[in-house]
Amino acid sequence: xxxxxxxQSPEKYEGKHVHEVYEQIASHFSSTRYKPxxxxxxxxxxxxxGSVGLDVGCGNGKYLTVNPNVFIVAxxxxxxxxxxxxxxxxxxxxxxxxxxLPHPSSFFDFAISVAVVHHLSSHLRRVQAIAAxxxxxxxxxxxxxxxxxxxxxxxxxxxxxxxxxxxTSRRGWDEGDEQDVMVPWVMxxxxxxxxxxxxxxxxxxxxxxxxGELEGDVVEAGGRVVESGYEKDNWWAIAARNK
Length: 243
Description:
This protein is α/β, with parallel strands linked by helices. It has helices at 10-31, 38-45, 79-85, 123-135, 143-146, 213-220, and strands at residues 52-56, 71-76, 92-95, 110-114, 156-162, 180-190, 197-207, 223-230, 234-241. It has six helices and nine strands. Strand 6 (180-190) and strand 7 (197-207) form a beta hairpin.
């Protein structure tokens, strides 16, 4: 496993082991990402028509077409992935860093961030990433505005991350294993000579979330957990702002 050396900043480490990798594998990565996770699909399909939201770390934009009755502003650090996501009109896609989102605060009805936060290489940066997403959401109305029986909680965000507890998967990680790992991506390409196939392996940094950790990060980021759960090797949480 590669670790962050004392003389290497998290930004440079993520630049090398996350951002540069996705720029190089963008097309190949996109070709393998087409089926939505069930919890993300449910979250998007349950949104009221006319809702406006964000997809932070959108990848190839596969979630932009799940609900045609909402509008999504998608963003990613990878220019090549943003170009692919930009094909999903009428939605917008922009290049942006999760820790420096170019969006107005307290504006959006919803946000999703799927398989993104676990790429940040320190606890502080993961909490900051969640806080940045929560900051964009509409806060819940004051009780006198919404009524005593109102269930309205303002904007909501779905955060989806890889789990440490994956003992039934091909990776086999489980409780007690190292949480900060390098995960290989093998990209195969055909050579121009004799159509031979070549392969190149890239390594991406992941922080594997243990049970309860994501909920703790949401609370530390100034949010509250509306709902959370586990879905095939992933932890997820639906969060709202505290204020």
